[in-house]
Design goal:
Blueprint lengths: L4 E3 L7 E5 H10 L7 E5 L4 E10 L2 E10 L7 E7 L3 H14 L3 E6 L7 H22 L7 E2 L3 E2 H4 L6 E5 L19 E6 L7 H9 L3 E3 L4 E3 L1 H18 L12 E3 L1
Parallel strand pairs: 1-3, 6-7, 6-11, 7-8, 7-9, 10-11, 10-12, 13-14
Antiparallel strand pairs: 2-5, 3-4, 4-5
Length: 254
Amino acid sequence: MARRRFFVDQVRKGRAEISGDEAHHLTRVLRVEVGQKYEISDTRRVWLAAVDTARKNLVEFSTIEELDPGPELPEVNLYLSIIRFERFEWAVEKATELGVTRIVPVEAARSERGLFDGAKKRLERWRRIAREASEQSRRVRPPEIDEAMRFEAALEVSSTHRLWLDEQPGAPLLARSVSFNPGDSTSLLIGPEGGWTDAERGQLATSGWAGASLGPLVLRTETAVCAALAVILQAERTGESDYPTSGPNTIETA
């Protein structure tokens, strides 16, 4: 069984600590005890470490050895239309587990009114969810969670590949839409419940974004996040985009 991994602010002279609410979670929920061994990361390097102190508001570690952090994740930036917050949080957690680099909430024309302003108050909560999901999935660092932006601003971002999920018939399958090379970056834009407006489609086309489909079915936004990221991240890791056109990767979002 793989050891749990925790994030620390820094490792100095072979020692690190976690305090406050996070320490309380470790000791009261995860039942961390003195002498147990875990992995710790300062978001750049990873160590095997032993627990020296386990109190309600403080957990201290001493490092045993530095570990191989594993391969670097490909750069995949998720521009996700703002949806109801409980569903958005689920999408943040799963996108983190799948290995996304950055998550940016986007206000689309069909995003529910008031969610853009509400997103500002949820930012720290989303970052905490991403951090916890990163520890669970043994990432070296959590994804960045940016402040919400308007649709027009999202169109101006730069990446090697800029893709948006299109629910209209005729869009090429996402799995066959691009060929990935080492070092490529990808930005993926996913629409809200109800899909894109004709005006937004026109703006995407004139801004140079490529429309792509996951197949004949229409999924909830948060489900499309998982399906699309699984296709893109697998393609980037293997340097290929030639996947079968049948099976669970052939679903599409609104």
